[in-house]
Amino acid sequence: MSSLQFTTESSSDGVRERDFTVGDVPGVLWSPASGPALAPLVLLGHGGGRHKKHGEMAGRAQLLVNGGGFHVAAIDAPGHGDRPRTAFDERASAELAAARAAGEPVGPIVQRHNAHVAQLVLPEWRAVLDALQQLPEIGTDGPVGYLGVRMGTAIGVPLVAAEPRITAAVFGLHWPDDLAEHAKRITVPVEFDLQWDDEHIPREAGLALFDAFASKEKTLHANAGRQGELPRFEVESAVRFFARHLGRTAAPQV
Amino acid sequence: MSSLQFTTESSSDGVRERDFTVGDVPGVLWSPASGPALAPLVLLGHGGGRHKKHGEMAGRAQLLVNGGGFHVAAIDAPGHGDRPRTAFDERASAELAAARAAGEPVGPIVQRHNAHVAQLVLPEWRAVLDALQQLPEIGTDGPVGYLGVRMGTAIGVPLVAAEPRITAAVFGLHWPDDLAEHAKRITVPVEFDLQWDDEHIPREAGLALFDAFASKEKTLHANAGRQGELPRFEVESAVRFFARHLGRTAAPQV
Predict the structure, then answer these.
(1) Which domains does chain A carry?
(2) Is the pTM of this model over 0.80?
């Protein structure tokens, strides 16, 4: 088992940010700059083509740390962020560009790409979780959540289905094709984001994925608008969701 | 135009409760016991067969007053609460009991009842709003919201469609049949509650009503569970929704 090595550290706006590696996998851990050390952990999955520290990721991390008092961890998926791009990624990018130029649906290409990346990153996430739980401020008994939409959902659904340590999850913005069978094995509380006028994912497809979760407690949040218009208040809702289900170390501020 | 007459007044848990009448219509106004006098108004519609001060109504009012700093008003719909029951209500009750005993769907009976009550109460609500706006702590320029599920939605959808003074609304738990045409004329922000396993309202029917709203900003909250299991945190969500859209007089506490 690879252990976790911290590389760089900085702090701003109440958030302590530490880059780390676990074997070849580069990651980042955001934590409260002050307050009780021991706190629940939220794993954050990035979207396709994105870096683990993309502005969207950093924004979510800051809300989770400052609003919920959580530790928040993200890693670069294979072919993403600080990791070498592969021939598979190059090909997917080219196919996407061609489909967009031709006005053809991107769904099949995105789904194939996401399923491939999910398969590769699954053992990596589990090894990173092992390593994170060796840190005294996280611990092996602490609650763990997962938040990720788009490719973050393609990764997160099989991960949460396979990983009993994760006890609450926020997903969204994905097709059911590769995920419904995994979703049927998920029984932990789920919050699911769907864009009512998503230009890529048919409404019925998004609803079918939500429907597939076996969770007794699950909530669908569908907002008017296209895929890119997921409202920021849904991140604030995710913070409250994790505060309810992981226990909170401070009153949520959002 | 009938003016508003206060009858009794009491206070508890930070909420000032004043019963009133406008003509023949009995109502109740819940307000912050302290704090700035001028505050937005939320109209609260009760469910079929319910009293304006049913525990569910009082609980919602308390969250809206204490969490959002709002004034909250409710009236008894015709045939409900402190108002005389009519032959129409007696017949609807008997039909409902017979359908339940026979294991037949109650939807057609409930919808017919709700549409009838909505038609009667619409001019009453508008007269009550006129009268409430004469109070200095509400005023004619202040923002107004509407919250009501079940029959509260059957009443609220035509009311909000007809009433430009209402600028944000929370609805839910209803069929689209009598309401979709009104919903298509509603453009103000809407939050809509749906129970994913509603035993009376087919999922597609609930989704169709949400779809009908012309609002650019609309959010569907669908929770696993039967109709009676609408989670309490959806009321807290409604408080935040009104705080966003009506402006708030205090930081929401929920």
Answers:
(1) 4-246 (3.40.50.1820)
(2) yes
Token readout for A33 is 């700059």
Containing B241, the helix (H) or strand (E) segment is: helix B233-246
Say which residue the tokens 């969770």 belong to.
A215
User: pLDDT tens across A171-183, in order?
Assistant: 999 999 999 999 9
Q: pLDDT category, B1, cuts 50, 70, 90? A: low
- Which residues of chain A have a CB within 8 Å of the CB of B215? 224
A224 interaction partners in chain B (CB closer than 8 Å)? 215-219
Gap between the Cα atoms of B43 and B30, Å rounded:
10
On whether the CB atoms of residues B227 and B201 are closer than 8 A, the answer is yes
**Best residue in B204, B211, B220, B244 for a mutation probing chain A (most A CBs within 10 Å):** B220
Taking Cα atoms as reference points, which of A148, A144, A252 lies closest to residue A193? Answer: A148
Six token digits for residue B46: 């009760």
Contact A215, A188 (CB under 8 A): yes
Q: Please report residues of A whose CB lies closer than 8 A to that of B219.
A: 221-224, 231
| Rounded-to-integer distance, Cα B18 and Cα B9, Å | 4
Q: Are A145 and A242 in contact (CB under 8 A)?
A: yes
B18, B8 Cβ separation under 8 angstroms: yes
Tokens of A202: 């048919």
Q: Reduced to 3 states, what is the DSSP secondary structure of residue A127?
A: helix
CA quadruple A128, A131, A136, A139: dihedral sign: positive
d(CA B179, CA B176): 5
By C-alpha distance, which of A30, A6, A8, A7 is closest to A17? A30
Distances in whole angstroms, Cα of residue B29 to Cα of each of A135, B4, B44, B123, B166: 54, 11, 10, 19, 17
Q: Where are the alpha helices (DSSP H) in A15-150?
A: 55-68, 87-102, 107-132
Residues shown for chain A: 254
ipTM, 2 decimals? 0.89
Instruction: Determine contact: B216 vs chain A, CB below 8 A.
Output: yes
What SS3 class is residue B66? helix
A168 vs A144: CA distance, rounded Å: 7
Pairing of strands A15-22, A4-12: antiparallel
- pLDDT of A47-102, one tens digit each? 998 999 999 999 999 999 999 999 999 999 999 999 999 889 899 999 999 999 99
Q: Are B238 and B67 in contact (CB under 8 A)?
A: no
**Residues B124, A161: Cα–Cα separation, whole Å:** 53
The Cα of A253 is separated from the nearest Cα of chain B by a number of Å equal to 10
What amino acid is encoded at B127 in this protein?
A
| Strand bridging mode B218-223 / B190-195 | parallel
CB contact under 8 A, A196 and B220: yes
Residue A147 DSSP SS3: strand
Size of interface A-B (CB pairs under 8 A): 45
